[in-house]
Specification:
Elements lengths: L23 H20 L4 H10 L3 H22 L6 H16 L5 H6 L5 H15 L13 H12 L38
Helix pairs in contact: 1-6, 1-7, 2-6, 3-4, 6-7
Length: 198
Amino acid sequence: MPSPSKNTGIVAPTTTRVPSHTPDYLNQRILDRGREHIENCAAYPDRIDARLSALDREWDIERVLEANASSLVVVGTALGYLASAWFYWLPLLVGSFLLQHAIQGWCPPIRLFRRLGFRTHAEIATEYYTLRALRGDFNELPEAGAKEPKEKAETLFRLMAWSSPVRTEEAVTPQGDNKLGDSPLGEHDIPFLPSDEH
């Protein structure tokens, strides 16, 4: 089982701070879920528009955390005013965890929300732009070079993917050495994605 690269600095990178605090098997499960949707749409292109609409409505993990934290702040403040001043500690605690999440990408509910399948914005965007590439939205995108829908989906998925902390032994190379061409989103490194073989 591959191990995610852990953040060494105090301030974690934006695109990898949540996955780096998520167990490998949950990262893999979330990654596979996106792959399945992409492969399904590659085989049945008429489903792409409906899937894109679903992605527009999907809540990323940041939005879920914001809703959860703000709800606890409101409840804690109300209880502190109506019941006991001890409840004022709840907003303080929630605010501290939220600050830690903003800086390092970790807070107590992260593993639960990841287990429930909530994805980061980068993970949702990877699926979103891969589907748009399959639909033919990017005229300057290099040909995927694959005849089979599944192979084409995988090629485009790797091209569009944002950085991932999950690596495989055969895919570990210095950053910047793994390119598949120019991306319509701008030049960027192709991430180290888990292999299908374990």
